[in-house]
Every structure is written in C-alpha cells, then in structure tokens.
From TrEMBL:
Domain RNA polymerase sigma-70 region: 25-83
Protein name: RNA polymerase subunit sigma-70
Alphabetized GO MF terms: DNA-binding transcription factor activity
GO biological process, one term: DNA-templated transcription initiation
Organism: Cyanobium usitatum str. Tous
Lineage of producing organism: Bacteria, Bacillati, Cyanobacteriota, Cyanophyceae, Synechococcales
InterPro entries per UniProt: RNA_pol_sigma70_r4, RNA_pol_sigma_r3/r4-like, Sigma-70_RNA_pol_init_factors, WH-like_DNA-bd_sf
One Pfam family recorded for the sequence: Sigma70_r4
Length: 95
C-alpha cells in the first residue's frame, strides 16, 4: 500500500494536543503579552478569531491601540516568558 499525502490520525491528534498545550502556555503569560503573541503568530484569539495569518506589529498596535514599539516589547517579553515556562515543560515535550 502506498503512503498518501494525507495527514495520519495520530499526527492530527498530536497537532491538536500541541495547539492546546501552546494555548495553555500562552494563558500563563500576562494577558497583553499573550494577546500580542497570538496575533503575531496567527493563533486564534478574541482579537483574531480566525487566526491563520500572522499579523504585523503595526496591525496589532492598531487593534490594541498601542504603539508598534510597545507591541515589539510585549512580543519580546512574552517570548522570554515562554522560554522561562518551557523549562518546566521540557520533559513533557522530550518524552
């Protein structure tokens, strides 16, 4: 039997679990940092319910009513926060 290009069921489950885990990690960040990261990387959220397309710093700033530089700082701080949190999750991902 030839392998197709279709996603295998276990790959779909793994992907959904990863998305859920990522959302849970983002919820541990301060609200504004989490919102910025979700919009920046195209993750569905209240400000971008469809998700999909990553947004620009300027676009995020317009929606949130803050400057592009403030958005960049929130993104940087949010990513640093995820790195700190990831130490606690590293064993789970490696397993």
């Amino acid at each position: 039997m030839l392998a197709g290009d279709a996603e295998l069921p276990e790959e779909r489950v793994d992907g959904e679990c990863l998305k859920g885990d990522l959302r849970a990690l983002l919820e541990q960040l301060p609200e504004l940092q989490g919102r910025v990261l979700k919009m920046r990387y195209g993750i569905p959220c209240a400000d971008n319910p469809e998700g999909g397309e990553p947004m620009s710093l300027t676009g995020i700033g317009r929606i949130l009513g803050i400057s592009r530089d403030r958005v960049r700082n929130l993104e940087r701080d949010g990513l640093a926060g995820l790195r700190r949190i990831s130490d606690a999750v590293e064993a789970y991902v490696a397993g």
